[in-house]
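Every protein is a chain of amino acids, and every chain bends into a shape of its own. The protein below has been through that process, and both of its lines are reproduced in full.
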Amino acid sequence: MDLPFLVLVLTLVTFGLVMLYSASYAVALYRRNDAFAYIRPQLLFAAVGLIALYLASRVDYHIYHKLAWPMLALSLVLLVVVLFMPEYNGCKRWIVLPGLGTLQPSEIAKFSVILTFSHIISLNHQRMKRFSVGVLPFAAILGVLAVLMLLEPHLSGTLLLFGIGAVLMFVGGTGMRWFALAGGLGAAAIAGAVILLPDLVPYAADRLSSWIDPFSDPLGDGHQTIQSLYAIGSGGATGLGLGNSRQKYLYVPEPQNDFIFSILCEELGFVGACLVILLFVLLLLRGAVIALRAPDKFGALLTVGFVVQVVMQAVLNMAVVTNTIPNTGISLPFFSSGGTSLMMLLGEMGIVLSVSRQGLQEKY
């Protein structure tokens, strides 16, 4: 088992739990009269996730060959079911499980895409230059998932799904000429979505205008971005100190979720933000080492998929929080509140550790 990778994961989990409590206790007191309302379930999910990490690290990762298609089918079913769930903040992204909390199907979808793409590529890696093998099945899978996720709507999740898929196809050996074609097909798909899903047009337009000029609607779509930037600016070089954020007191909406990084910047400053970024960079680099040492193509692709997913999502979240890109509603891995996400992440990291363990066994 790769000890440096495990240490990085445990560090991110611990850091994330500390920051979640710091960022969430004010809004938890206000909404639920319980300062531990968000951190308590997250601790439980973290414990379950760590058990999943351990179990996944001990299981032969080749078993996921058999689970790839069933997981994809499950994710499709869940993405349909979620469309019949009640809206939250104008979106239908969560399935309510009475007594257990909520389930986010997009997290299952990301997992299933990595499994399915890795499965297909590892079985056909010598024929990936062909359109029928290296492009068509992946485009079909992503297309169906994208339509269902855009209906929620979940634009950030859709973009992340395409990003993960593109990286796996590139690593898997898809011919470069097909990426140009894929870009054209992607543009056509977006145009088709605009035509077929007219509700997305005002949704996307509002997000775009609030990104260009948040102060054009300071009490509406621009409010979250403005308060986030205030929090980041207040942090300075070393921050106000852990627990001393002012913006988390109902200024930054949902400080425990998508905008937790702004609270981190306010409390720990530029130094703390750089530390978090460094942890994600080290996770990516160590993941690359594990992928290079993987016993086979399937293990390498699983590792690349899971690690790239984490880092890509972190980059998108930080870009949103700093207003580098429009607000797309995407969480910060290991930090944002969300039991499904944390458990899935830790289970996926366990699979990476399984790949590293078998790679070391073959080496020695």
Notes: The chain has one domain: 3-363. Residues 260-292 form the longest helix (33 residues).
